[in-house]
Amino acid sequence: MTFSEAYATLKSIFNMLLLDGNGTDGEKWEQKTINFAQFPELLREYLQVAAGTADIPLVRFLQDAPCGLGSNGEVTLKNYYDKISADQRNKLSPALWRFDEVCIRSATGGRNGAIYYEWAPLYTQTEKERAEVFKINSEAARSIVGTVAGQELITREAVSKALISRIEEDGNLPGLAAAVEEYGLIEEQEPTMEEEAAALALESARREQRAGGRQQQQDAAPRTPPCAP
To answer: What pTM was computed for the model?
Structure first.
């Protein structure tokens, strides 16, 4: 039995410890207190280094709520998803290209150019974000075609078809294309009496505005004073 083992045995049995010396010289016993108050912060620093090495945000790596004032971890996760999407396009897709071509030809017997695939999005928009995007697209389309006839920057038919395609891709109004195909576009329908009256009123207002503008130009034109006799 070693000296340290004998110490441990005596202390555990009799709750006492024998020291060799006269009290001033010889062996001394000191009890050290270990403080673990800062240990969680230290451990978190190590985990943060591990998460950075793996290129994974700490919020996702630990499945923990983000810390910090006004921080919800959303920006960090978006950057992480953007990086994965870039790796999918720039690394995985080129590496899988030959395998994909073989699978397509093996399954269909040829190579149809209409066959392709896209990586599924990693980030899913919330209902609020989808509603905001839908509102922005609708307002942009309205600003292009105007509020009444004659204000279009691009034809209503082109903007309508592009907007329908965008809405369906975003998944805001499922079945919109089928409904448009069944009931037709706006330009395919006969204008109502209210729409015709509004168009006539707009045209009349424009004529009056042009006439008033010409009158103002004539009134503002310099006039030659009459010559004295």
So the answer is: 0.44
